[in-house]
C-alpha cells in the first residue's frame, strides 16, 4: 500500500469518531426539558455575514451615478441586535456627506438633514431610498460613473464605525434633484 493511502486509512477512524462525537453533542444539547424557560434566547438560524462583521447588515447598497454636484447612497440597513442602532454620520473620500431625509413642507417634497441621525430599531430593517432617508454626498470631487465602487464609513452613537462598499448605477426615478436647494423637485 502506498504511504498516502495508509495515512488516509489511519485518519478515517479518527474522523468518523470526531463526527460521531459532534453528532452526539448536538443530540444531547437538543434534549433539554421544554417545560422550563431558557436563561438565554436561542440563536437565530441565519446570521448575515455583514451583521457579524459590523454593527449592521447592509443589503443591496448602491449609489446614484452623477457627473457632478450631489448624489446619494441607498440600501437596506439590517439590525439583528437586541438594541436600537443610530447612525450619526457617514463619510467617503469622494465628498463631504450628510444624513438626509425627504419631508413634505408647504406642499412640496423637501430634502433636509436628518436630525438625531438614522435610527434602525432592534430586530428590524430600515430602507435608505430615493424619496426617503439616504446618505447624501454633498460636493463630488469627481464623477460617479455606473459600475464604480465607492467605500463608505458609517459612524454610530457610541463611536463605533463600519465600512461598506456600494456600486454606482444610473437611476432616474423619484425625480429628486440633488442640487444646492436640497431637493426641490426637478422641473
Description:
23% of the residues are buried. Strands 1, 2, 3, 4, 5, 6, 7, 8, 9 and 10 form a 10-stranded mixed β-sheet that branches. Helices cover 17% and strands 36% of the residues. The radius of gyration is 24 Å and the shape is globular. The protein has 187 residues and is of the alpha+beta class. It has 2 helices and 10 strands; from the N terminus they run H-H-E-E-E-E-E-E-E-E-E-E.
Order of secondary-structure elements: HHEEEEEEEEEE
Q: How would a crystallographer describe the biggest sheet?
A: 10 strands, mixed
Tell me the structural class. Answer: alpha+beta
Q: What's the average pLDDT?
A: 75
Shape: globular
* Percent of residues in β-strands: 35-45%
Instruction: Count the DSSP helices.
Output: 2
Number of strands: 10
N-C termini distance: 82 Å
Low-confidence stretches: 1-52, 182-187
Rg over CA atoms, rounded to whole Å, is 24 Å
Helix content: 10-25%
Summed up:
The chain has 187 residues and is an alpha+beta fold. Helices cover 17% and strands 36% of the residues.
Secondary-structure blueprint:
Elements: H1 3-29, H2 49-53, E1 57-64, E2 71-79, E3 85-91, E4 97-105, E5 108-113, E6 118-120, E7 124-128, E8 134-137, E9 149-156, E10 161-169
Parallel strand pairs: 1-10
Antiparallel strand pairs: 1-2, 2-7, 2-8, 3-6, 3-9, 4-5, 4-8, 9-10
